[in-house]
Design goal:
Elements: E1 2-6, H1 27-37, E2 41-43, H2 55-68, E3 71-77, H3 81-93, E4 98-102, H4 112-128, E5 132-136, H5 143-153, E6 158-163, H6 174-181, E7 185-190, E8 192-197, E9 204-209, H7 218-225, E10 233-236, H8 246-276
Parallel strand pairs: 1-2, 1-10, 2-3, 3-4, 4-5, 5-6, 6-7, 7-10
Antiparallel strand pairs: 8-9
């Protein structure tokens, strides 16, 4: 698995009208971070609308990333036939090999049958683009349903973008997520979190943590996914709780991104060293 960083490691910076540095967070900002931190893969979430870029802008960005030795993965939300085909086109322009998709969008929750139809009709385009569609586990659909989706489609160009935290929203912990989805994982979102009981004991809160500082069993996750050989990239995402001032929030987000990249890099390197040991 190659190390990567997602634009969702900068969820506060993206869309901040006037960050303290005086510069909006863009696709180029994510690439700048990857270059500075020696991260070989960047992945875009749906909060940066790559399909709003002109072909010329996409071509220039693809060239800059290629020259820097950074691979691009794309991402979108709202799995309609039109949106999927639009992002297949964007992915081709950026030389992407992974397209991560969240099925649901605001006021849009397609049925299982509709999801199968949409993806099945796109398979020829995915094959032509040499592109793998990673369906992300998200709040509504259970891991068992997502596994049934991948098994039904039975295509090497479709798998799961396995997020280590999202399925908590569906009442499913990391054990169940890995049991169902590790065999069909094509892309891994590494996101740490803490689950803490409220002070009055009736309920819990789930909050993000920098990688290695929360409840995520990182080594177990990597060991569970690796043997199947389909997962090509492990991508850092974070959920930093906000600080009272936006400047402090953005600074914390930057620190978390850097420390999480370092932690995941070390974990991946350890596995390489272990497999190469005599």
């Amino acid at each position: 698995m190659r190390l990567g960083i997602s634009s969702f490691a900068f969820g506060w910076a993206v869309g901040t009208p006037a960050p303290p540095a005086g510069r909006a967070f863009t696709a180029d900002t994510l690439l700048d971070f990857a270059i500075a931190q020696r991260v070989p893969v960047i992945q875009f979430g749906d909060h940066i609308a790559l399909d709003a870029q002109t072909p010329e802008e996409l071509a220039a960005f693809a060239t800059r990333a290629r020259d820097a030795g950074v691979a691009i993965e794309t991402g979108a939300r709202g799995l309609t036939a039109e949106h999927l085909h639009r992002y297949i086109g964007v992915s081709r322009q950026l030389d992407a090999r992974v397209l991560r998709f969240v099925i649901d969008a605001k006021a849009y929750e397609p049925s299982f049958a509709d999801i199968v139809t949409i993806i099945r009709e796109a398979l020829p385009a995915l094959r032509a683009a040499d592109l793998t569609l990673g369906i992300e586990n998200h709040d509504r659909l259970s891991c068992a349903t997502l596994r049934r989706l991948i098994d039904t489609l039975a295509s090497e160009h479709v798998g799961i973008c396995l997020d280590t935290a999202n399925s908590l929203g569906a009442g499913e912990g990391i054990g169940e997520v890995l049991a169902q989805l590790a065999p069909v994982c094509v892309n891994l979102h590494v996101k740490d979190y803490a689950i803490e009981r409220l002070s009055y004991l009736m309920g819990f809160t789930i909050t993000g943590r920098a990688l290695g500082e929360g409840a995520l069993p990182l080594d177990h996750v990597l060991d569970a996914v690796a043997p199947y050989g389909r997962c090509t990239t492990a991508i850092v995402e974070t959920w930093p709780p906000p600080e009272p001032e936006i400047s402090a929030t953005l600074a914390k987000e930057q620190r978390w991104a850097e420390s999480s990249v370092a932690r995941l890099r070390a974990a991946l390197a350890e596995r390489i060293a272990t497999t190469q040991a005599p």
